[in-house]
Amino acid sequence: MDACPMSSHCGIEGILEAYHRSLRSVQLYGPTNFAPVVNHVARSAAAVPDGSQYFVLLIITDGVISDMAQTKEAIVNVSAAP
After folding, report:
1. Can you tell me whether residue 13 is helix, strand or coil?
2. Do 35 and 21 have their domain in common?
3. Where does the record place the Copine C-terminal domain (predicted)?
């Protein structure tokens, strides 16, 4: 679903373009687990401990988050990362 196949750094426009394009080709259904995604981004952020880069994770959901407690915990744990 990446708008920029060669790079994961496409900006907000790339994110929105990928989201709109994906809605035409995927069917959304549960369970919806976000904690693994948050933890993946946290590992990427931890690889840049000097703060020279920052990471923004935009979560878009069409319904209930199945792992809400784990997602909240993951967000709190990564909140100090760049």
Report:
1. helix
2. no
3. 8-82
Give 10-residue mean pLDDT values along the chain (82 residues). 57 82 84 94 88 82 90 92 73
CA separation for the pair 28, 35 (Å, rounded):
18
CA gyration radius, the chain: 14
Q: Are residues 23 and 58 in the same domain?
A: no
Residue 52 to residue 61: CA distance in whole angstroms: 30
Q: Amino acid letter at 54?
A: Y
Structure tokens at 73: 């915990």
Q: H or E stretch including 82?
A: none
Structural domain boundaries, residue 56? 31-78
